[in-house]
Amino acid sequence: MSNFSNRVTALLGIKYPIIQGGMIWASGWRLAAAVSNAGGLGVIGGGSMQPDLLREHIIKCKQATDKPFAVNLPLLYSGIDKQMEVLIQEEVPIIITSAGNPSTWTPLLKSKSRIVLHVVSSAKFAKKAEAAGCDAVIAEGFEAGGHNGREETTTLVLIPAVVKAVQLPVIAAGGIATGRQLFAVLSLGAEGVQMGTRFVASEEASSHPDFKKMVISAAEGDTQLSMKKLTPVRLLKNKFYHDVHAAEERGATSEELTTLLGKGRARKGMFDGDLNEGELEIGQVSALLDTILPASTIIENVWSEFQKACAKPFRNSAD
Q: What is the pLDDT of residue 318?
């Protein structure tokens, strides 16, 4: 397995089929470079960055690694045209788009010879990404942190459905943090994984240390999908979550929820470390994590466990 290769590793020019999620307030150039240097695909989370800051992170990432890296841009944010201009000017080789229509930007990016991956939550949207000209899709299940699909389809169901629907390489995301989980989704037809929550709990992540500690302290049931009237997002349960939940229970309108959300709530929680009033976006797999590790160690551990699973995939009573 030392010479593992498939369509995802060939497309992205990486050693391992492991992509780091582009999480806002967590995925700066340090994390992206560390993941790329370790053989995965590092990703700068551009959603929270103004154009000048995004350019700075891209330049620093280029200085810190000579390996491929990507930038993730959620298409739901305003000012996306200026961010895209930076990506084109700085010749970012791989671009991951999410939370929007892939046909809006993919033709332009492909005309500039960029590799384009799009995040989807259903087979229907995977087909749209394929029709738009994307090179691969990242199929993200209900377990994932941050913005999520309204369908609430779990990764175990979503991956085979998307694999059946498109000819493109499929990258699995949502609830993945271990080598055995990598083995599982490859068994379902995926050709790689994207891991977000596992890399939030890394030394190089730019998220606040107190947020990282809360992530690795999370137990089963400590996250919940919220704010479906706006854009569904999976949150750690804290005071802000409970305020949102109470508002939803009494039938709050989308306007009321928008007012409650306010401005800068995600930064307040994940970057500034306000664990009470901040929006703490994280996935269900946080319940499996108990350590904050260097990104390189995370990749080493995942790959080692994956190789062991390949050699002896099933447990039996003699183990």
A: 60
The answer to whether 239 and 276 have CB atoms below 8 angstroms apart is yes
Render 47-71 in DSSP notation, one character per residue.
GG--HHHHHHHHHHHHHH-SS-EEE
Compute the radius of gyration of the chain from its Cα atoms: 18
Going by CATH, does the domain composed of 7-207+285-311 fall within 3.20.20.70? yes
Do residues 102 and 76 lie in contact, with contact meaning Cβ atoms separated by under 8 Å? no
Which pair of structure tokens corresponds to residue 179?
A: 């080598």
Token pair belonging to 237:
């349960």
Locus of tokens 């806002």: 24
Spatial distance between the Cα atoms of 123 and 16, rounded to a whole number of angstroms? 25
Percent residues over pLDDT 70 in the chain: 98
pTM over 0.85: yes
DSSP helix/strand/coil, 265:
helix
pLDDT tens across 183-213, in order? 999 999 999 999 999 999 999 999 999 999 9
Break the chain into its structural domains and give their ranges: 7-207+285-311, 209-284
270: tokens are 């994940």
Which residues does residue 45 pair with via DSSP β-bridges, in sequence order?
A: 72
pLDDT for 120: 96
